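Records of this kind hold a single protein each, on a pair of labelled lines. With that in mind, the following record should read easily:
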Amino acid sequence: MASFMRRITSGHPPKNGSFQEDFCLDLSWRAVNGFLGCWGVGSACWRDGYCARGGGTGYYSLEFVTKGSFLLRSESETRTLSPGDIYLLGIRDKTVLQANPTGWKKCVFLPHNPVTEVILRELFRQEICFHPEEKTTEARIDAIYHAASRNAPEVDELVFALLNSLKISGPAADYPPSLVKALHFLETVAGCRAGRRTLARAGGVSISTLNRLFRQYLHCAPGEYRQKKRMETACRILSLRSMSVKEAAAECGFSSSAFFCREFRKYTGTTPGRFNLRKNHRAKQTLPQPGHSLF
């Protein structure tokens, strides 16, 4: 189980505003390797135009604006983030976040690994930020914080729940209703085993229309997308439960453990057995020094 500690700090970098932060951090986060994993969660207030650059860090920061505003500068544009907006630091290099002039936010830190990269790139494919259901999102982040402050084992499960809720209220909200129905069906137990005909029926469209919608909006075939969802499920259950490779394969809809292992390695770069070993390994990391922002 992760071991979270509380960290409260503030800083006044020269000519760069000031900040105050309150986070629960897991000292062994990099080795949790739960292929999702949460190594930190908390809140921050940036004042007087304090700014920081994203990218080049060892983690992603999923950030939710609660009060005030921020400026988010990418290579191509500058946009204002208001309360209720959620955005991601750590995927796009040369992204600068700046308080405008003061802003409050709540953050969840996720380690770099193949699974988080796939999930977050899918979630933020179309936009660098979006506006999810505000009260629900803040409540889910608060639940992660309270679980971390108690070193509760359900932290990772709560992170998965947060990301799944964002998928429903995020960019997918602009998808055609038939595609949304098909995607929701894929989240079910029956959906992970469904063929194209069953999936098309769930969306209320023909197979050819289903193929076109997946290519147009998700840039892959229905089968490819279903396989990716299976792998996400495999990583989640192997991270959060103790089970054999054969049990994991069956729960994810694979009739062959050997085929499951090949697909899992193709997706994550490692085998399910090694994944379990790495998941249980812990390696302590050095925290940022007091007076320096985590961002």
About this structure: The chain has two domains: 4-150, 171-279. Residues 29-34, 281-287 have pLDDT under 50 and may be disordered.
